[in-house]
Write a structure and sequence with these properties.
mainly beta, nine-stranded mixed sheet, six-stranded antiparallel sheet, 48 strands, about 10% helix, globular
Length: about 950
Amino acid sequence: MIRARKTWAAAIAVLTVVGVAPAAAQAQPQPPGATSGQAAPAGTAGLPPGWRITGTGDAKALEWRSPRTVPPGDARVEFRTDGRLLGIPEPDDDGRTFRLPLDDTAPAALNRPTDLQVVSGGRRLDEEPGAAGQERRPAGSPPAKLPPQLPAGAVDPGTPGRFATTTGEYTLDSVRLPGLPAPVEMRGVVVAPEGATGKRPLALFLHGRHATCYVPGQGEDAVTIDWPCAGDAQPIPSHRGYLQDQKLLASQGYVTVSISANGINGQDAEIEDAGAQARSTLVRTHLARWADWAARPSTAPPAVRQGPKADLSRVLLVGHSRGGEGVDRAAMDSLYAPPASQGGRPGRTRWNIRGTVLIGPTAFGQNPVPDVPSLTILPGCDGDVADLQGQLYVDGTRGVSRGRALHSAVHITGANHNYFNSEWTPGQAQAPANDDFWEDEENRDPVCSVGSPTRLTADQQHRAGATYIAAAARLFVAGDDRVRELIDGTGRRAPSADPARVLTHAVGAGRGAGFLPDAGVKVTGGRLCSAVDPDPSAACLDENASGYSPHFAYWQPERETGRSAIALDWSAPGTATRIRPGAPVSLKGAKSLALRVIVPPNSTGTRLDVSVTDATGRRATLGRVGAEGLPGSERIASYWAQELRVPLTAAERAGVDLGRVTSLELTPRNRAGKAWLMDAYAWQAGTPQVRPAPLARVDIGRIRVKEGDSGVRTYHVPVRVSGKNGGTVRMYVTDPATGTARDRLVTVRPGGPGIDVAVKVTGNKRYSRDASHDVLVKAVRGSVVGSYVGGVTAENDDPMPGISVTPVADTVTEGQLLHWRVSLSEPADVDLNTLLVPVPDDTRAELSTKDVDQDWLREMMGEIPDGEVPLSRLEYFALWASVPPGETSTEVAVPTIRDEVTEPAEHIGFQSIDDEGEPQGPLLTGTVRDAS
């Protein structure tokens, strides 16, 4: 895991005032937005509410505490600033506190500490739900409108089949998975058709990351995410949450199994890929058992023997959330073998993955499998993976391989993340469960709050999900092309999913050459914009936009190359945007031109004329397309592309050479608006047979080395390239000092030169922190990427200098500074800190809030408490001393003020504490004599 690629050493320097930054180790920060008469927590000077810096030395951490419990979910909680990833914090057992350890950071500037953000799946956790748009949304705004109901398709895959079903469960010996210390359970619930003859296709379900253990009858406080479950706690049966989906498929003749992955959920917090490879290995381990049982039926458990024999040549994988990323990786690993360290096994794979269904999936690696058909369900009210990053399983396949596999995105308005699993649904689950779309009664979301006309009930949502899982099975496994129109952007619905409003688009399958927003394209009248870029003039979506886009979901680099769209922005009709590809595009033989176009949420009346021009200059207007914005709010990802098709017949009549089209024009016909073109493809009906290409596979590893005492050593990032052919990947190399990433295209070939990242490590005898030189890789063409992140981590091997505190002026007259010097036994290469906590003394007069400079106190505490309070009695008061890199001392001071009151000498005591809060060194005392 890349925990902190930017350093917080410089952050503390920014936050420290004259060498003092308060941070009591036991402080409890106020929740964001809270107001009270109590002083703000120590350690928060210059930080947004809810934030503080805790600990000293190796235990120093940036901490944020949520005003509410953050349930264990699939999206990772991330700390960010100015659009950059700072790191992945560690959750505390209380479910509210998150800490980013600073032991592996390196110097980098933090110029604006107030820009700190806590983000999970694109959703801000450090704001009240809807706070960002509270002022933008006028009071009394009308409720969001549902998209219109589409015509019914020719077939309805949600209709139950002719078979009765039988249900059973198996439990096998637990298995060891790479990277996980504790064994993982091998448990599956099987639902199979009764009376079905012959071999039957197999559908395997994998749930996502959810709490793992609970104590019946003790509520949410007894819910944990650890493994194995302790004491009286029982495993949460997340794998039993898809019984409705399994029974539908089983009634249609499929053998189904849903497997448990609690053992991964309880151990994946520290894994660099968030457990994707472990989940793949678990899936493939189950499939290997099913292959064994198919070959020797008598060895199968009773739950398997009670159904027909499974046909392992026809397998559908269904994954929810992190389970979605897991089954995607399993499909990849089944085609392109991973290394042994990632669960790879010798020999030929004994199963064939015909397709995948990914429900609200995470996409931490953004590494889809281009030659395995997929259907990705995007819940419009997802409160967990809120940025709908699973869209990358569609967009990320473009141009990587042959483009014949269908990759469909299915957007379900009003669906949340959890309710596709009945064991994550309140009122249906055995363990405590919740609605992942957080509710704010004072600022209800117009689209997703419960009771909104656009929000689905749990039963409606689950029924829609089951219907589209069955659609994928019927198309990808059974080969029924009549289902394709339900999922490929044609604009037909499955009545079994009613009343859900479902929109779809796709890439691949019957789509041919297209207009892509890549580096070779030239745009006039619009602009080529970047999906992820800190520069507002380059980014596709304005930072003040109400809501966000799945197509522009953030990855890890602050700026990504190669992810683009074409932005249109017009204030009057008739201003054309012209797109010229680097080479002529052939639309010959196609029926239509299929465009994927984003329009702003809640917008109406967008109309675009579509024209093409050939190499001779002959031009034709194909027709007009229109789009209405999805129902949206500032909390959801509604900037989503709709598929708009326009026939090519007008170009044929005009004599345009469709084999050599040199430009595409989009001309707005409504008065003003915005739109973004994701791509435009030649389209024709049909689902071609998919034959996976022999792609190169790239896996990045990580090595940890000691820095040494002297000299310069060169290390190379471990890279494994396997497969038969060459390919192209984009590589990002991060600078450990700044956190910025440089990228370049690299051609890889098994056995040949490719990715070579040399890292120079300079040895010394000064204490520092670990330096992580990180490398990230993404497939571009002719390749797939397994382990997408790695690098070289240079570990500090020098002891931390000793820290001592001595008085400079510990007996002063009113109006003077109490001074102490903090000294190191030798310089360090990073800042080192010590915490001085006040010690109450009931035997003599103590220095109080009225005896010190009020501006200094206000800066320390955020606000000054009413009345006169001894400093030692302030709940959050402490002194923090930071010694800068290369120096050996600094000073801390308490500025006293002179008053006109005759009084005895006043005192204050400070105790230096270590990382564990234990006293270090003698008690320090300060005495202030009366000046009158």
